[in-house]
Amino acid sequence: MPERVLDVSDLPPPEPLEQVTAALGNLAPGDYLRILHRREPLLLYPWLEEHGFVWSTQPGETTSFEIFIWRRSEEQPTIVATPVLKRT
Amino acid sequence: MSAAGLRLDQAPPFFVPLRFFITAPIFGALAAATLLAGGPQALASRWTPTALAATHLLTLGFLTMTMVGALMQLLPVLAGSPLRHPRTVATVVHGLLSAGTLALAANFLIPGPVLQFVSLAALSVGLGVFLFAAGTSLARARSDATVLAMRLAATGLLITLLIGVLIGLGGTPSRFSADKTSTDMHLASGLIGWIAILVMGVAYQVVPMFQLTRAYPSWLRRWLVPLLFVALLLWIIAARMAHALPALFAALSLGLVATVLAIFAVTTLWLQSQRKRRLPDATVRFWTLSMIGLLAAVAIMAGHAVGIIVEPRFALLAVAWLIVGFGISAVHGMLYKIVPFLAWLHLNAAGASSAQTNMKAFLPDSQALPHVWLHAAAVALLAPAVLADPRWIYPAALALLGSFIWLGRNLVLATLLYLRLQRASKSPQASTEKIVGTAR
């Protein structure tokens, strides 16, 4: 499952939200998005739910949080490990 | 795909906080106009009717006004616990706080029983309703450093209100000076317990979020605000029981308040200096000014604690810098970020495409960045006005008046652009119409 990485950790609000939603619009079928973020994107979660995405938020390696996002109709990426901070 | 259709499950309608933000500069401008009208005698002491009227126009009409509005927005976002009935609470609190502040300021200038009753009743009920609504919300919230600060700040506001009402019931303004202890307690709980503690608690969240700094150290977030509250209580006890306690007790408690505030200011300046993103930003600059104002006030407090500074006019300058330099600068910085962000958020939630709305358009840097210098001039000019020649009150008050008019103009233009974009997003052509805000 190909990974697309988007680092929004140095952007002021609301640019992370704008970039993530734009990137998800261009996400090829079968791909998943890995967001590198310094905060938990609480405003993003309800938007993901409404637009048919599933996510898993985990502690990041280089940033505070990494958010993995994939389509609800597709398989969970194997990279998504437990424990998760938030998941639907 | 864009951020259009954001769900704002818990956020109140935009005009709930906005009405407080838009009203505040009017009270700020009234305070500056009061000082101008009062002239060189205005700051002869903290007891002049002009000084008392201007102080309350600034602390209630500007600072408390914006902080109440901000809390109505931040309680759901930062504490996860929205206020119930936000529209009703906003209408009641905004109306009574506005009327009560006007009546109080007028009553300092024109003593009389009617204005006295109206001001005390409106402020007690207005702030009482707010404290009840915010208190209920804070009781439900999950506790962290910011929620704890909000709880202590609400306690500080309650103490300030109660002492203020007792002073107000005690007699006419001319008799206020008879009870310096009560007014000292009122001043300390208002400036430190309410304003400083709330600014600190909110800073822990919004400075890293909007100024792109690293987080405040966790030990600082955990200990600084509770320590400040304890130091404040010790200082109040020292003031109340000055006859029974050694003078060293009062000096130590004041020194502790000054130390805690200095740690907060220096840490914030250090975090700002470590930012990776070096672009000029009005919010960052206003917060730098705010922390410098705080440090300047703290230096006077520290000098007072160790006995180097004894003259009352220095205490007056410390209070002026705490209000105009620290509190009002920080609120400017917050408003210049939160108003455009909320406008963007609500437009997207209403279905406007984020590709079509540009947050920067609501408050362009060209309108916000030069404002910092005018406000800094107002802060600096307070020093000669209080310490050297009272005629300096004219340039100081003029700079302050200009600063509030500038803020009000920017907020009104941002609101008008929001309304225009909101109408455009609802129109049938919205999907094809380019509604980027370029009007300014």
UniProtKB/TrEMBL annotation, chain A:
InterPro entries: DUF2249 (IPR018720), TusA-like_sf (IPR036868)
Domain DUF2249 per the UniProt entry, residue ranges: 5-71
Domain of life assignment: Bacteria
SUPFAM superfamilies linked to this entry: SirA-like (SSF64307)
Name recorded for this polypeptide: DUF2249 domain-containing protein
Organism: Candidatus Muproteobacteria bacterium RBG_16_60_9
Phylogenetic placement of the source organism: Bacteria, Pseudomonadati, Pseudomonadota, Candidatus Muproteobacteria
